[in-house]
Each structure stands twice: as C-alpha cells, then as structure tokens.
Design brief:
The complex is a heterotrimer of chains A (433), B (181) and C (323). By secondary structure, chain B is α/β, with parallel strands linked by helices. Chain B contains five helices and eight strands. Chain C is globular, with a radius of gyration of 20 Å. The chains are: A alpha/beta (433), B alpha/beta (181), C alpha/beta (323). The interface between B and C is medium-sized, with 22 and 29 residues.
Amino acid sequence: MSAPSPKPLLLKGARLVDPSQGLDAVGDLLVVDGKVAAIGGTIAGPDDARVVNCAGQVVAPGMIDVHVHLREPGREDVETVASGAHAAAAGGFTGVCAMPNTKPVTDNQATVGFVKRQGEAAGFARVYPYGAISLGMQGETLAEFGEMVAAGAVAVSDDGRPVENSHLMRTALEYSQTFGIPVVEHCEVMALAEGGSMNEGIVSARLGLKGIPAEAEEIDVARCILLAKLTGGHVHLCHLSTKGSVDLVRWGKDQGVNVTAEVCSHHISLTEDAVEGFNTNAKMNPPLRTQRDVEALQAGLKDGTIDLLVTDHAPHHYDEKEREFADAPNGIVGLETALGVNITWLVETGILTIPQLVDRMACLPAKVFHLPGGTLAKGSLADITVFDPRREWVVDPSKFKSKGRNTPYGGRQLRGLATCTIVGGRVVHELTD
Amino acid sequence: MSQTTNVVLNARAVARTISRMADEILELNDGSDNLIIVGVQRRGVQIAERLAEVIREREGAEIPRGALDITLYRDDLQTVGPRPVVGQTHLPSALEGKVVVIVDDVLYTGRTIRAALDELADFGRPARIMLAVLVDRGGRELPIHADVVGKRLDVPRGGRVDVLVPSLDQRDEVVLLGAST
Amino acid sequence: MSGSLLGKDLLGLAGLSREQITTILDVAEPLKEISERKIKKVPTLRGMTVVNLFFEPSTRTRISFEFAEKRMSADTVNVASSGSSVSKGETLVDTARNLEAMRIDMVVVRHAGSGAARFLAERIESNVINAGDGTCEHPTQGLLDLLTLRDKLGSLEGKRVCICGDVLHSRVARSNIWGLQAMGAEVAVCGPRSLLPGAVREMGTGVQVFDRIEAAIEWADALNILRLQLERMHGGYIPSLREYNRVFGVTRARLERAPRDIIILHPGPMNRGVEIDSDVADGPHSVILNQVTNGVAVRMAVLYLLAGGRAALADAAKQGGAA
C-alpha cells in the first residue's frame, strides 16, 4: 500500500481470540506501522493512537474467504474487484481469493497481475488471484502455473467446472508441487448433473425440475482424493454439499492424503426447501441439499474434516435472476452475510465455539493457502476482524456494498456482525451505529 | 331490527293458486296444444312441475317440460363474481312453433327473466313466450311483465318473499319476511 | 380482483383441497350441455379478453382452450412464441408486462420451463391459467382426467388409478397425482425405473410403484397412459420403443386378463403401437374421446370460476371508460 502509515490503533477491552496462539482472553491490542505491536493485558498506547473501545466485541485475525467471484475482467456490470473487495471488508474479511472464471479467463500472468493490482488500488480487503488450471478453462492443456504464481496467483482452479480429464488433473496435481500451490477442484460429474437446477430428491420430483444427484459431486470427490494420494499433491475441494463427500474426505485424511476441503455458509444453513416457489435466489451449484447433508457438513466442520468456511460469493444481475428457474444462472452473494449466517447456524447452535469459528474463517484459510495473516502474534501483519457476536441485524440487500443483491437471506434476522475491519493497520470498514 | 315472518300462502292456498294459474294458462293458450312449460332453476322448476300436473288432470294432456339455469346469463358477473353452483339446462324439443311458458317462483327486478329470454333465444325461436310467476312483488328494473300471476304482494323496504317447496325446503308455503324496528 | 374459490390463478392442482376440486368438477358438469347445443355460446364472459400465450407448440390444448373461451363469449387472442425468453429476445417478464399494459383479463400460458406459470402470475394482475409449464403441472388436464374418471366410476374415493409411462418428465402425471390424492384415490405408477423420479414413492401422500404392466392391470380400476416421447430414447433413458411396447405396452391381450373392467385414459396425442395399441385406444374401455369433450367443459368452468368479482372494472365500465 502506497498510502502513508496509518496512525497507531489501540483496540481496548476486546475478547482476543487467536487460535494460532491458543489465545482467548479479554485484553487490548496495539497496532503500529501496520503490524501487531502488542497483544494481551492492558496496553497504554502512544499518545497519537486512535483508541477503539471493543468491549463486548471479538478481536480476531482477519477472516479470509478463499472462494469468491469478483467478475472482473468481463462482467463489471455485476461486480468489480473494487466493489467485491469493499463488500468483503464490510463483511469483516481482510482477504479474499478471486476465482479465475472471468472474461477473459484468468489463465495467464497478465490477467493475474491485473486482478492483483485492481485489488491493491481499491484498498479494501486484500485480493489474492487464482489462476486457471487449464487454458481458457477448457480442460485440455495446462496453463502456465509458474508465470501465474510469479504474477501473484496463490492457487489454481477451473471452478465453475470440474477438470473432467483425469490425466490432466493428475498432471496438475504433480506440476503444482513445483510451486507449492493447491489444486482447487469444483467437484462435479457433468454427465450426471447436466440440465439439473436443484438437488435431486423429493422436492425436485414434486416441482418437476431436473435434479442433480449427490453422487455427481461425490464421484469427483473420490477421484480427486485418489489422484492426490497417487501424486502426493495438495487437492483442495470446493463447496462440499453432501454427507457422502464429507465421509469420503474423512477417509482420505485418515489415509494421510493431502486433501483439504471447504464448505459454504449456505450449505450449512439452508436446504432444498428454500427453492420452494421456484426462488432463483436459492439456486446455485452445487445445490442446496437435505437436512441430513446439512448436519453432516456441520459435523464435518466441527471435527475438522472440513477445514474452511467460504461463501462462493457469486453476484448476478437482477435481470439474469429474474427468469424462469431452469434458465436463471447459478450463484448467490455471500460476503456480507457470511459472518452472521455462520454465527447464527454454527455458534448459536453450539456446534462451533467462537475460537473454532475463527480458526475456520481466518487461521486455517491462511495456513491451507499459504497466505500471510491468520495470526495476531506480536510482529505479524495487522489484518484484524473486529466483530460483535451477539449483535442482531436484519439483512437488507439494498444496502449491500456488493453490486449483487441475489441472496436468499433477504429480510432474515441474523446474529453476528463485523464492526471494524483492519487491513495492514488501516481501518477499511467500520460500522457507524 | 328484528324480522317478522308472515305466512302469506299456506300449503292449501298455494295449491289453489297453482290450480287457478293452470286454468289461466290454458285459457290464454286456448287449450294445451303446442305448450311447453319451462321452469327457471331452481324453484321455478318445482312450480312448473305442479302446473303441468294440474294441466294433466284437467286436460289429460302431458305437457313437455324443460328447465333453464340462467346463472351463465346473469348480467352481474363483474360485480358479484361467479356463483359456483350452475344447475342443469334442458329443453324437451325444438322450440319453433311452440308456446313456451316460462315459470318462476318470484318476479322482482325482472333481470332473471331477461336472462331466461336471452338463453331461450340461443335455443330457437318459439311462436310465443309467456311468463307465469307464483308471486309478483313489484320493484321492476326492466320492462318485464308476467302474463299469469299467482299472488301480488307489496314487500316493505328490507323485506323479502320466499317461496318454499317440499322437495328443497321440506315446506310448502309462501312467506314474507319483513324488517321492522 | 378474483374469483374467491380459486384465488387469482390456477397454477396447479398441488395444494387444492378436495372441496375446491369438487366444485370445479361440479361446475364443469352442467357446462357440458353447452357444447351440445346448436348455438354453442353463453354470454358469461362477454367483453373479457383472454390471451393464449403458448411458448410451446400445442394444437389440442390450445384449441380446447379457444373453444372454451369462445363458447363463454370471451375475446380470444393467440400468441405463439417458441423457445425460452433468453433465446428469443423478449423476456417472460417483459411479455407479461406488455400484455398487462394492453389490459387483458386472463392469460392462458404454456411454457417449457417448470415454474413459468407461477413466475408470470406473480408479476401480473391478470388471472393466469397454467396450460402446462415444463414438467411441473398441467392442471386443466388433471381436472378433465378427474371429471372423466368421476363420470365412469362415481366417486373417486378409494379408487385405484395407475399412471403409466414416463412419469419423470410428465406434468400431466404430476397434476394427476396431486388431484387424485386430493380426491381420496389410491395412486400408482408403472414404467421403466429410468423414467420414474427417484423419490416417486414419497410424492404427496404416497405412490405405489409397479415394475410390470401386468401387475398394474391386476391392481387398477383405471390406467392413465402417458405418451412416450421419442426424445426419451435419444436421451438414453430406454433402449428402444420396440422394447417399451413389449414390456409396458397396454395391449388388448393384457387387458383381457384384468380382473375387472379397466378404464383407459390417455392425454394424447397417442403413439399407437408404443404405449397403447389401437384396439385398446379404440376399444370399449377407452374414454379417450370423453376426455377431449370434458376438456372443453372443464376449461369453461375454470375460466368462469376465475372471472368476475371485479368491482373496480365494473365501476369503470359504468363511468364509460377503460379501467
């Protein structure tokens, strides 16, 4: 950041939660020159420090969402790197990883560099670009992992589509090890999912919509785990949505395979019943499944089978979602509701404690993707999320910082809201009320 | 406001009135040739039955009978909305050259009979149409006139005339419900 | 703004009560007579404008609706368009709003997308009648099937009706399931498993599955035989039409082994020799032509029950201007 060094920040009286240090205690935190200068106990900051009263708030390492779609380049009408990074900051995130299914596809160093610079210029949450696995995401030839990583890519993915060719997936898993990056797969067997627009089950049978069976995801999950086992590469599985997928990942980890997994906030909170009435704001891929799947995903988060929480933030234009169900595009926004949804459905219900939630939203994303942050240890980068875990609020999509309004949570009351987001010691978002 | 119920015609009076109405019909028509008696659903059909029975006793002739349901011909669909129960409509033969006697229980605004005339017109062109009603309570909103009237009644404001028939109401009488303070 | 019995629209039979369905059938019954008259017209819907908005080609359903509308003296406009809104330029929303701006009273819509009728109904004030949306519902077909069955069987309570064929892709099947269950009938399906929804047994209050047509014939009071579409073969759901007929075809020989007289229904058009043999379709147990006749009466009943009760419109008419 080229801006001059911000004033020192003194966060007072917060519940300091940092799983990376095993810390969960009330105390102060001092930020000087963009770094954590001191943490814990009572701190008397320098005179020119801005003091923020954090009584009743949680201060945690900055949350990082490793699965968002920022739509730039190509669809700046629905989101830009800047508006997306702003939405992330408003949601409490200090970093996001931007998927490469842009137009043109982010499959080369020029586009990777462009996305990275757009993020830096915006000055909200940090933006870490993904590079595509294959050129044009066509699933035929490898993109230049080395060049993309050198330009700032932190991982590779063809998200939106699976890598159907197993030989290509194998090669990607082998080649990625040269650069120490994860290969991130959107798990789907296209032949089973083709034409489907929601989970295959009793609701799809009733509504007369073609369904996508759980096995369409699970078969690819199994394949990826086995290829990771074969190659020793790191495969990270996107947006798990079924009990079977959780069971398979658990098996893979037991076998010592280098597999990690993520789950979206909507998949641990909503079921296929949300589609009732052909609500296109409940349409995404993979689709919302059954209560049994929700419970298995929640359990998987709790026992560590699933490492991270993400949003798969996917803004769409109002006109595009205002269509017959089968024709509407997949995806919902999530950055500005994630914390509230996660606290309401995971913490309030006793499935995760606050430190466990912070681990899965901040520490583990940094660890799994080798990103800076994820800790508040003295001397570390001052990427900090301050949030009120008890604050109740009603979701109003018209107030989103994101250009997208496509959320199924509109009008719902959630508990938990970010009050202040700090990136490199600068406040990039704070609540005024 | 309480309601007073006044039996205007009891069963025997109804029978006498119907008897006289049958005679009038035969007189107007100069006999029973070419007569068709068509009752308006629902109670008009019952009255029509009884008229035909009297005529059978008098003349020994079996008069063909029909029924008309005018629900679909009402002029108030837009204001009142559809009435779910639509009764049967059937007519015994072609109407050309026939004298059709439309029979209804109460003649009031005249709109029901207008609708019945419209409906009959869709079936054919009788030589003559007559109207016979058990009760004429006045209050016409259209220039409709009954050829044969059983009883003329003055109905006070807020009041109502009900013709009750055995098959539908388990009673056989004409009652006047008047609103009084 | 609407007939109070059904609300503003008829989008499907799911969620209709036995009372509502019975009323529709009871209203349709006396309306049959109108089609037997020399002058096949009643003035009931005079002055109302009905648009038949068909995004999927259809001859029989559209004609049936057109007869129903014209026999009730409504003004009919046919709009035929093909393909989804995405490919054809004008979105469904815009089409709907344009129609509304022309002050139409009712829209009868057929569309390839499940949920399209509801989509339209939520966005325009006119009454919407679903003439078939994707694989979701075809309520007037369901109703005419119920009326035809009721004519033959008396009450539907406890009667056994088996729907045969491609239930997975059939909106007729779904409407029939909801309607029959609401009327207290027992419902079963019979067809290749690849053409039945995985969750079929749990649909509504429960559906039985027969894997062989002989078992269905043994059980049923009536068979509703669905048309097998050629695309199913291209989609790899069944190997051939020949095999389908050999295993599932309703033939006279199979029917003769039935323990009772089974009523045969088919929504049409028929693939003679595939799902149904000609001597069955034209035979004594077939009520297929009755279905067609009843279709007009049922559609008249639906139009009638949705219409009227529009005080605002009536007031405006009295003032001599358009609403």
